[in-house]
């Protein structure tokens, strides 16, 4: 039997924790940055403490959050979805910058 992909498992765990009844809300960048920095949702790259691993973890989190956002809001317009996805991208850039700055300060 083939072993499950750890990223897919992380996605499924997070997806199963989401209330799909709360649709039609755009994400808030500040809240997303906090989630990304706090390690929510947990992802396979969390096991790698290197700078590259930390950045990959942010990318994995954003991919999961974006997928669930689209699933949750699948009845919304493409414009709404695009706007929300841009917020995730902006939050990812800011989270990565903060992580890089924290590493360079230490």
Overall SS class:
mainly alpha
Binned, the helix content reads: 55-70%
Q: Kindly report the average pLDDT value.
A: 92
Number of helices: 4
Q: Taking Cα atoms only, what radius of gyration do you get, to the nearest Å? A: 14 Å
Describe, in plain words, how this protein is organized in 3D.
The protein is an all-alpha fold and 106 residues long. The protein is 67% helix and 0% strand. It has one domain (28-105). The protein has four helices and no strands. The longest helix is centred in the last third of the chain and has 28 residues, at 78-105. The chain is globular, with a radius of gyration of 14 Å. The mean pLDDT is 92.
What structural keywords apply?
106 residues; mainly alpha; 4 helices; 0% strand
Report a brief summary of the structure.
Helices cover 67% and strands 0% of the residues. It contains four helices and no strands.
